[in-house]
Fold each of these.
Amino acid sequence: MTEITRRRSVEAVTFSTADGWSLDGLLYAAERPAASDVVLLHIHGKGATMLDIQARWLPDALRGVAHFAFNMRCHALAYNTDRDDVPVAGGMYESLADGEVDIRAAVEFLRAEGFTRIVMSGHSSGGYYAGVHTPAGDDIVGRILLSPLTDNKVALDWWYPEPGALDEALEKAQALVAAGRPDELIALPSWYWAISARSLLERSATPGSEFWIERVNALPSPVLFGWGGTESRDGLWTEIAERIAPDVSSARIDASDHWYHGYEAEMTDLVAAFVEDITGVDPRPGQ
């Protein structure tokens, strides 16, 4: 891959969700006129932002097509709920339902901008959303699922490994919600360090990987499924990839970690080949 030149043209935009939230995004124009209707929609994971993981380097490396990265409500790690101007809903207070509304708004924004071929690109929790989002219409022409979270309950076993500890935490969360304190934080031993009572209950009630697989298979558009071979879920993703019904291409990188540190160029080449295959447009910078 040739050396990346920093993009110098980007438009900062604000758009609204159906439930009245304002979200910020970055829209990168395509350098190739033939790609004016093609856009990569980058969906970040929990705690990340529109400037992280694949959205950090792909807009620079693949300037032939447009890119749109935006901050979902779960961006960064929210820390309080007492602001009068902008209420907090992300991070430790994340609602999975909010995330689906956010992505729906991003897709509608891109449609209004004239993009008729949208390639959803999600990493980690963003890969979960890219998998379950199945809008009407045929403009989602491809999905790039990178180290996707397929089961939002997976963290519960990490947080509460001792017998009975999870049940005790859920009882506490239910009591807080019943008392009108759904946003009160419950301490955790890892990852977020804390999570709201309402968010903990929502996680425990969500369906597992079977639901995610069903949603991925509900759309016919092809899939690029990638992850790092050193990740703990390597075996799980290998099994899931075999159950994806649409055409699926592998972007598994043997020695990579969850963030593709040191393997950005290799992942870029895999994404570029996938985008060109499904759109007929070379996403690399023009010569």
Amino acid sequence: MHRMRRSLWLKLMGAFALIITAGVAVTFMVVYVATATKFERFTRASDLLEAQNLADALTAYYARQGSWDGVDRLLSSTAFSFSNADALDGESMEWSMMGGMMMGGDMMMEMMRQTGYGMDRVVLADAEGVVIADTTGELVGQQHPEEHLARGEPVVVNGQRVGTVLVGSMVEPVLNPLDADFLRSVNLAMLLGATAGGFLALVLGSLLFFQITKPVGEVTAAAEAVAAGDLSRRVDVHSEDEVGRLAAAFNIMADTLEQQEALRKAMVSDIAHELRTPLSLIQGNLEAILDGYYELSPENIEAIHGDTVVMTRLVNDLRVLAVAEAGQLTLEWEAVDMAELARRVVDRFSSQAAERKVALHVEIEPSIPPVRGDAQRLTQVLNNLLSNALRHTPAGGAITLSVRVQDGGNKKRNVLVSVTDSGEGIAADALPHVFERFYRVDRSRSRASGGTGLGLPIARQLVEAHGGRIWAESAGPGEGSVFSFTLPAA
């Protein structure tokens, strides 16, 4: 059991770990791609803005200077960016350019530093596309490719293009070393965070799976104990979820098995007891005849035959009851007229009732609808109920078989059949047991006069097989009793 529980825990943990790993990997890749794409777009947009601002400043520089003389020294002496150049209005920018010419490059660069420019690479090409300034110095004097110049920002003076400025991603990979390092730092932090979150989820998941597998293990252990014969084993119900319902269902099943086992043992004991009596009588009578104590006369043979009849009836009743309880009773379904069936059964029992000096009546309402059932089995139900009533009704008493229509609700009708006697009645504590096997209200009765004790259980099984319900009522000892059953109208 412990091995099975641990195996289930490991399977759940393995599946959960695989899901977490896949989730972390997919999330990381999606966020990584999205972050890199967005960062590259931001970088290009920032470089374009810097190029536009720088083009405005260089336009003013060229307009004042009349040429690009000195611009290479200005751009190469320090790395700067015009990302914050929009903070300067037109007059400030013009004043800066003029200051640059009058006060020299150092003063202009100092002003640029104070406005917050950074370290992006800047390349300036003249009107013919020849690089005249590069903050890295790599491309100075080279003819810049036309397709790269198309990405740059033109410098226009008096309607004439005098140069092109390119910033950052316009001349080199989108991410410079600082940007690439920043992106790697972000991705690493994201990966570490996702890994830590996945590990935490795995720890919490292990605790959750333990809470699930522990009660399942308890149910497994209890099921193994029940399979080994310990029907008293139960499990504790700790919750009302699916696992708690499983434990509760197991307890109900175990209770049912224990009750069925007790009934089985009681039935076996009762069957052995009931068969022992006629078999003992048959054996005793035969031995007496063999030893010469009894003559082989018709009277003695008739006594033995009576015992065999009792035993045969008991065996047949047990067979019918076992088949009915197993749900394997074969029924010949047809429309049955319960009114006509009741009349025939009363006619059959009229002679027995006369011999016992018991009045037997039948009361049938008009327009009784037919029921769907097996006429032979329903006749057996009526026979068992009338036989039981005759056994418990003394001479001078009365028995009434009635058939009526009963409202079943939802516009449905039932046929209600009742057998009412004026016999000895049933105590309140005995009423719940009258449909049990071999149960006798009067323990002093013998099987010869009291029946097999299976008539009422068989009647219950047959009625329930027809979708009906059967019950007993009595006001108490000496007050008579009523046995009734209902069947749905066809």
